[in-house]
Amino acid sequence: MSEFCLVCSMTRLNFLGWKKNPQIVLAFILAFVFCVMMSAKAIMFARTYGTIMQIFEPFVWAFSDGKSILLASFLLIFFFMDMPFINEATPYYLVRARRSTWIWAQILYIVAVTLIYMFFILIVFCILCAPLSFVGNMWSETGALLGYSGVGEKVALPASVKIMEMSKPYKCTAAIFFLMTLYTLLAATLMMIFNLLKNKFGGVVSVFILNLYGLLLNPDMVGRLLNIPDILQYKSNVITGWISPLNHATYYMHNFGYDLLPRLWHSYLILVVWVLLNILIIRKLARRYQFVFS
């Protein structure tokens, strides 16, 4: 059997562990509840004002805020808490394949689960908002009302004028989806590193610290904590935009042609490099990982 086939076989075995697994079921239930909570305000607003939405707009509004991305990434803990995955077939595969093959199966599983999770969130948003939505690639009157009238701030729906003027819904959704996927991959691979280096508790703590770091580097929070004058707040926004992984994953925290924030391709590159570095560290740690079979 080729190495690629072995990697796929081990990855498939990890997915078979989903069957009747209450931890995985709970993860998808919580993800569904999270989507309902995040889309509720947009649905209520559209019904109140008798307007319709572009089908991806609620997803864009929900994840225009770094805090929403942070909460979404936390749910991945349920999927990856048991990494590295060891089962009754692991000794058999380790005899027939190298450790590198085993760890590549773990990495492939992380990537696949992250994509499944992100597509699940996007699809649930679309299903929940479908009765009040259209599929055309243009911003709706609901988005215009939220962005230009200031009503969005009153109902806590961050429909950014910056987003609406610089992109179209499909392009914007794809960018947000990709940024969120890279950030969640960063969190998942970091969790894997500390699971291998320490234990499962260390992996959970590492994700918490990563998200706390991103939360504390929110430009508004930094401005309030350090009492930064409004005239210097822009510099604070630029600095935190570059050094915070969470801000790199936040769509509106980017340069669309008139400031010094990172451009989208900068964030793509930085997040991809971080994820690849984590994968290299995982491979190195796996070489001396001590297997314990019961």
Automatic annotation (TrEMBL):
The chain crosses the membrane at residues 24-49, 69-86, 107-134, 174-194, 201-217, 265-282. Keywords: Membrane, Transmembrane, Transmembrane helix. This is Uncharacterized protein.
